[in-house]
Write the structure tokens for this entry.
Amino acid sequence: MAEKTSETPLLDELEKGPWPSFVKEIKMAAETNPMGSDLLNLLERSYREKICHWKHGGIVGVLGYGGGVIGRYNDLPEEYPHIAHFHTMRINQPAGWYYSTKALRTVCDIWERHGSGITNMHGSTGDIILLGCHTDALEPTFQELAKNGFDIGGSGSDVRTPSCCLGQSRCEWSCYDTMAACYDFTMTYQDEIHRPAFPYKWKFKFSGCPNDCVAAIARADISFIGTWRDDIRMDKDAVLEYADRGLDIQKDVVELCPAKCIAWDGKELCIDNRACVHCMHCINVMPKALRPGTDTGACILIGSKAPIIEGAFLSSVIIPFFKMEPPYQELKDLVEEMWDLWCEEGKNRERIGEFIQRVGMGNFLEAVGVEPVAEMVAHPRENPYIFYEEYFEEEDEEEEEADE
Amino acid sequence: MAEKTSETPLLDELEKGPWPSFVKEIKMAAETNPMGSDLLNLLERSYREKICHWKHGGIVGVLGYGGGVIGRYNDLPEEYPHIAHFHTMRINQPAGWYYSTKALRTVCDIWERHGSGITNMHGSTGDIILLGCHTDALEPTFQELAKNGFDIGGSGSDVRTPSCCLGQSRCEWSCYDTMAACYDFTMTYQDEIHRPAFPYKWKFKFSGCPNDCVAAIARADISFIGTWRDDIRMDKDAVLEYADRGLDIQKDVVELCPAKCIAWDGKELCIDNRACVHCMHCINVMPKALRPGTDTGACILIGSKAPIIEGAFLSSVIIPFFKMEPPYQELKDLVEEMWDLWCEEGKNRERIGEFIQRVGMGNFLEAVGVEPVAEMVAHPRENPYIFYEEYFEEEDEEEEEADE
Amino acid sequence: MAIDLKDRITDIGPPHYEQFLPPVIKENYGKWKYHEILKPGVLMHVSETGDKVYTIRAGGSRLMSIKKIRMICDLADKYCGGHLRFTSRHNIEFMTTDESKIDEIIEALAELGHPVGGMGKSITSIVHTQGWIHCHSAATDASGIVKAVMDAIFEHYANMDLPAKCRIALACCLNMCGAVHCSDIAILGVHRRPPIIDHKNLRKVCEIPNVSASCPTAAIRPATVEGVASVEIIEEMCMFCANCYTVCPALPLNNALNDGVSLWVGGKVSNARQEPMFSKLAVPYIENEPPRWPTVVNSIVNIIDVWRKDARNYERIGEWINRIGWPNFFKKTGIPFQKEHIDDFKHAGLTYKRSAHLTY
Amino acid sequence: MAIDLKDRITDIGPPHYEQFLPPVIKENYGKWKYHEILKPGVLMHVSETGDKVYTIRAGGSRLMSIKKIRMICDLADKYCGGHLRFTSRHNIEFMTTDESKIDEIIEALAELGHPVGGMGKSITSIVHTQGWIHCHSAATDASGIVKAVMDAIFEHYANMDLPAKCRIALACCLNMCGAVHCSDIAILGVHRRPPIIDHKNLRKVCEIPNVSASCPTAAIRPATVEGVASVEIIEEMCMFCANCYTVCPALPLNNALNDGVSLWVGGKVSNARQEPMFSKLAVPYIENEPPRWPTVVNSIVNIIDVWRKDARNYERIGEWINRIGWPNFFKKTGIPFQKEHIDDFKHAGLTYKRSAHLTY
Ligand code: SRM
Ligand code: SRM
Ligand code: SRM
Ligand code: SRM
Ligand code: SF4
Ligand code: SF4
Ligand code: SF4
Ligand code: SF4
Ligand code: SF4
Ligand code: SF4
Ligand code: SF4
Ligand code: SF4
């Protein structure tokens, strides 16, 4: 009677219900690996005590890499010895998260041999997360993965694994090849991914259109958001088809257009393309009738991040429109220019967005050699505190640079 | 030939053109008073040299008053002796800026006897500005004015002369009696107007409706903006009349309503009054057809100011709706509560708006005993940095106040 | 000077407004029903009682001689029963119940040099400040620019030919006396050279710790200069706010070579349609060009013309720009966009364009 | 452990995606023309070439055992030529050119416990983080709440019965791993008790100047406590950000009695219609209630229900609130408005209501 039927009554509650249960997953892993059952029991304890049992991470990793492994130890190693070490490895996902079952099985096999058999498919940055690895197993896991074509991602003050929406592979709206760009940047910056040398982390994210299906604008130090410059392509018959099928074009499209640049008279849809702000809404509602134009590229934005410490930022426009063509050299030059400046003048743990805010966008642009354009601001300054940079001296009536 | 026909060729240019010329005004004053001609010549010099010739003001005033006079001396007193002293006196305007010619002539007569004969009708705060007074003439001018019913306004760290739109005196939209309220507050706070005792200035402004014809929301430490809670009154026939006379109700009214709460089918105008944000636009466009409701009062906002030093502020809501009935005791209690706190904890030269921002609106409300309501914010906080004020201790499982 | 304290009157406040109200205003106080603009500058208010009052609004120069005030009183005595009022924007209003007198009043005003207008979809008087007439802080004159600008845009004062109201204001320094920061068009005097320190006198006229503390960017530090206690200013940290000068006369910013004017657009105060908005920087700097500031005048005429042609009915300048976007404002007006337009003060980050909503 | 450096492979990056693309995807890459959602969880893309691909989206639990991954591979081998993909929100997509196989795939997935849905006007998987499964910083669990919430709102995953998309995210501490700050509904783990200082060890594991500097509110100061060099924390200045704990393990914020969850609403990422927006505070604090967090679940169900009934077509939560105003959001949901809702961080002033645009 003292012995209960289950050791994890609280977690068992989470096996119920229609949504896939992570508890079932841990139990599946526990069938063959004691790390799984230790994890289950420790988690049950957390559920009882309402507190986690992980210690502040230590520095662990694989040889020659400065990141990609998150060290983790529990604070009750005697009671949960199999997960005394329980590090995660961040493994670069393939662009667009496409897999062959062969490749996936290979990863599983390796992870079965070396780790807990538990994964996250995927982590928030986009990596394959191999959850629960002993320190000794890190290097062998890595090398086996590497032999099979997989590499480790970032952590700490480095470039994190870039990620992208599936783009042109399956989406008709993608204004550039997101997967190609993501792969290309990932390969170009291998060194920066693996050997942290920045003031803080740096994330690249690539979305094919303003719908932004990888949330690039919210969580990338540099965000590439596909867009177009010419007219929205329209299939007039398909418009009528939508109307016939009951779409209330006036209410659901015209009135929701943020630029108020669409007119609909019941027969014809008219878009003032010079006023369109490329929000995608009309296209989203009528995918068969409307498509982005053909002069496509990306709007490039900079600096988004989570709130620590200046508050959260969204990325802001730095290049209103760029033709995204390999090898993207101009962009890479700009990225490197920004890195140089940020490495030189950024404070420790200061994201590029915070750095720009501290030094001022105007000064930042000047330093990286980008011309200011009105597209970079929601609106010009409201306060009169302008740092005019030059003034005349009485003596010479010549314009002088104030020394900086 | 050396002698020119006019000594003020630059200023003379400003006598041309259709708009009333201040140069002509100064010349008129100069006809009978040498202060006028000195001013004209000094100004001509400023026009030539592109710089003003006034020195930083000194402290001058009338006995027992700490403000209301702006001391001013020119920096070339030998050359312009009549305006060596050129102080301004700020005289309370009557509420709504109505005058009898008798009263105005009396002011003119007094000013002719004691000062330059030049005025501003009116200053930006609303006062009658008597421009150009010798130090010795301040007290006699004041006493003569006082005998005729006029008093001096504020300057420095005191209450400034309150001002108001003409309100119910001539405007059909006024949701409370602005002139009565303005007069009442002015009389109640005579001491605070005349004897500076605050960290910085304090301005009251009263507008009768959300059109805000005294710009209260932009430049008053406390702004009273009339509004209503019930339904907009409508004269359906008058609506049709406007339509007949060619008003495009759909385009010019419905589509510009910020709450998107008006519908027009060509025959009837429908307003969803619960969604209406009381912007006044529809009423402004059709004054004969629409009027504010009858359950009227004011929305009270706090803290606007010019940019020095935290940047400009607009006032923000502190009481969403208040029935503006004399003697406004609840409001006065609140104002005094706020003053007490601000005097106690405000920094020197810190306006109440800046003070609130520094201590936090939530803390401010708590200190002055006002319940927070959602109407006070454009939106709730976006950052997660919440100062939770209490926590449980392990020992007692009791909620503890963190000591403040 | 001996002051007789016995009979001294203080703290009486302003005269009560009631005694100044024209009879029709007094009788219909709180009873007004609707109004109509009969023609530019002429307003008719109709009361629930059936009474009507006609208001003629005349442009004021704000700076007025007592001679002129008396002439205006004569006019009010003749036509308006000895009453008149001023508006919150320095205009002068004459009220009558006799519709037939309207044109006579307008003519009489014209003779005095005061044109009628500034109502409805027009430009009314420019709210402004002292400038070189009276203030020690002025980076430009006030009345002079105002006169030059009003002359140039006079047609929009005298006619209701604009998409919406356009409120212009001028302040001669960053203290911004007036509601300059929320104007459709704001003219703002700016300094561009850090204070030239009067080291010899500073210590005598100011307290050094106060002076240092007054600088919002901490550009001012105590320093011993040529043997005397004074301050030094790190020039590249100075944003020319003049707060130090307000606190200490030994730090003048006025400078003939560098002072001038900046232009700001798109603010508004009323709650009508869009919420009140601040004005935003349009032209960072124009040098002082007395007596008629042609560059300022032309820039403003240009902005008004572009707006007038491009805006929809009832769209004030800021509302129009909100619809077309700032990039189009700069494109259409031809004003170059520069580093100075990008905010770098405390909340700068919130002014960056944080979306892909762009026009091409 | 000796590492053989000779054959060691590094810096190879991820495998090239091309090798993983299903043939129909590879052949029609860049040629897609339009799509249709055939039914919940089933998407058809049509190519310029006339090819069609059907995508079945299955809910993922994110935390997956290799056993499950293999079962899913079996399924993909059987129906999808050995290909599959994951989405940016942890779902699993199966693609086929054979329309007739759709229902079989759905059934097979159901057997595995993976329901199909999350497309169009629905709720899809909750983006989330580690929680008590792995992170030292977690103020709440992640997977557990996510499971409880998804179970409760499952109908909106399986059906497209909402006014618009609704994206929910969870982060277990203020570091906000994920796009929590821009979600329609965000669940955020919060600490509410200042760090309990481990004075004995602090000096050994952390550098005191770094620790002091890490605090954004300057609440931490060096101090000698019971004879050892350590720090002290001014409790009323602490806003529980845990930046100090990130820098120094001797300052844990985790606390069973005080940790819990806050709820945020109205954020969005896409540029569709309104610009991207941050989420705003809805419920400041709900205590941790494992295993099924009923208060969190009910609060979210309530918000979704109110929104669902009140919003117009295509109005996401934030867009709906922008139309009705925040006061009405609080009224309609019955959530009390409190001091905590009023911003008091750096840009607080900009969040105050600076107009008279109010509903009554
Ligand atoms: C006379 C007047 C301008 C005018 O020509 O109309 C004026 C003139 C001065 N103002 Fe002002 N202010 C005047 C209305 C305003 C307004 C408008 C208002 O009251 O509606 C504002 C903006 C609203 C506000 O209060 O923020 C205003 C904001 C300032 C400021 C900035 C205050 C701030 O908190 O940002 C200063 C600087 C200061 O206080 O040290 C200032 C300071 C000054 C001083 C005293 C200069 C100084 O630094 O000592 C000016 C004296 C000029 C002179 O020589 O006569 N004045 N000042 C206005 C008062 C006339 C009147 O009583 O009717
Ligand atoms: C006389 C005056 C009030 C006073 O007590 O002195 C006044 C009087 C009227 N205002 Fe005003 N307003 C007056 C300054 C203002 C101000 C303040 C300012 O400009 O500094 C504002 C806010 C300006 C802003 O938003 O920046 C103001 C914003 C309005 C509005 C809103 C306009 C808008 O669309 O934004 C209306 C409604 C309208 O005109 O349709 C209005 C309407 C009116 C009406 C029609 C009200 C009425 O029923 O009598 C009055 C005549 C309108 C006209 O002139 O076209 N009044 N009005 C002020 C005249 C100033 C002048 O001489 O030109
Ligand atoms: C598969 C995926 C991209 C990927 O590479 O993995 C994807 C795929 C599609 N998205 Fe997305 N979106 C995906 C994440 C996102 C995200 C990111 C996120 O949620 O974290 C966003 C931004 C969310 C936000 O704004 O907060 C996103 C905002 C959109 C929108 C804009 C919706 C809106 O009205 O705001 C559309 C347009 C639409 O659905 O009408 C869209 C439309 C689409 C279309 C229709 C594009 C297409 O033509 O194929 C795809 C299927 C739609 C569907 O599921 O209803 N997708 N989509 C992601 C699926 C996530 C999931 O498993 O549920
Ligand atoms: C694993 C992951 C969460 C997950 O469950 O998916 C994660 C986990 C951690 N993040 Fe994160 N972050 C993860 C994606 C993110 C994201 C989302 C993204 O990349 O798109 C963000 C928000 C975007 C951003 O970068 O701002 C994010 C913002 C943070 C921050 C705050 C950074 C900031 O500048 O505000 C920290 C704190 C720090 O860096 O010290 C942080 C720190 C951490 C640490 C390393 C905790 C720490 O303080 O040392 C967490 C380790 C947990 C563990 O035990 O495994 N993590 N972190 C995500 C990485 C998985 C992957 O590689 O795919
Ligand atoms: S971001 Fe645009 S291109 Fe990419 S998947 Fe989403 S809708 Fe398609
Ligand atoms: S993409 Fe957006 S802004 Fe452009 S026309 Fe369509 S709905 Fe309007
Ligand atoms: S603020 Fe309103 S009540 Fe006052 S004058 Fe203007 S329109 Fe009339
Ligand atoms: S007052 Fe403004 S918000 Fe209200 S109905 Fe009229 S236009 Fe709409
Ligand atoms: S704006 Fe500046 S210069 Fe002009 S009156 Fe006010 S304080 Fe003086
Ligand atoms: S003008 Fe302003 S910024 Fe410059 S030194 Fe003086 S106080 Fe500092
Ligand atoms: S949100 Fe916080 S607790 Fe959760 S994984 Fe990220 S760092 Fe750890
Ligand atoms: S939790 Fe944040 S605010 Fe509190 S002491 Fe630590 S760093 Fe400072």
About this structure: Residues 397-404 of chain A have pLDDT under 50 and may be disordered. The CA atoms of residues 96 and 166 of chain A lie 5 Å apart.
